[in-house]
Design goal:
Layout lengths: L3 E5 L4 H5 L6 E10 L2 H12 L12 E3 L27 H8 L3 E4 L5 H10 L2 E4 L5 H5 L2 E8 L8 E15 L6 H9 L3
Parallel strand pairs: 1-2, 2-3, 3-4, 4-5
Antiparallel strand pairs: 2-7, 5-7, 6-7
């Protein structure tokens, strides 16, 4: 049975272990944006033993490269990007520095889903193609690292009731596989 949760970041183990693939989450609090290039820079800092630009423990990273805001707006369209491009890096962020959640679109590989199970993290899906509607849930946006990356810079976003679906949970469930299994002929 699908449940709906209101959660606030930072997320704890207790927050994520209650979630199951297919559940709906209205997420509020602070999330950070990062895509491919920013992820690479974060890993370079970890490998060098240097401090990261934000505390990843308990955090949620949104895979997004928002468009510039129109006058009077906080942010432009902010729809999710395809997540598999971060698959080679996400397990390290989860297992080594305590990332608790990721927001994106599309499937994740086995290493990511295994990391979610091992270290109690979750992958949320946001509706692709609805970036302008999702932006309405973003109340503030501030570039905090890698400004030279333009739209792919790391941003600190304050969100309120950001609508998400749990795709991969801490129990190795995958909503994409579950949905497909319902309709496969056996």
């Amino acid at each position: 049975m699908v449940k709906t949760y209101n959660l606030t970041t930072p997320l704890s183990d207790a927050d994520v272990v209650q979630l199951r693939a297919g559940d709906i989450v209205l997420l509020s609090g602070i999330v950070y944006t990062a895509r491919d290039a920013a992820h690479k820079k974060l890993i370079d800092l970890i490998d060098a033993g240097k401090e990261l630009p934000f505390d990843i423990k308990g955090s949620v990273i949104y895979f997004v490269g928002p468009t510039p805001p129109k006058p009077g707006e906080v942010i432009g369209s902010a729809g999710p990007t395809t997540s598999y491009r971060m698959d080679s890096i996400s397990p390290r962020l989860i297992n080594e520095v305590g990332l608790k959640g990721m927001i994106g679109k599309g499937k994740r590989n086995k290493e990511v889903t295994d990391a979610c199970t091992k270290s109690k993290a979750v992958y949320f899906g946001a509706t692709g193609g609805a970036g302008a509607l999702l932006a309405r849930h973003i109340k503030s946006s501030e570039v905090i690292a890698y400004e030279e990356l333009g739209p792919e810079a790391v941003r600190k976003l304050e969100i309120v009731d950001f609508p998400l679906t749990v795709i991969n949970d801490t129990y190795d469930q995958d909503l994409y596989k579950m949905g497909r299994a319902k309709y496969e002929v056996k």
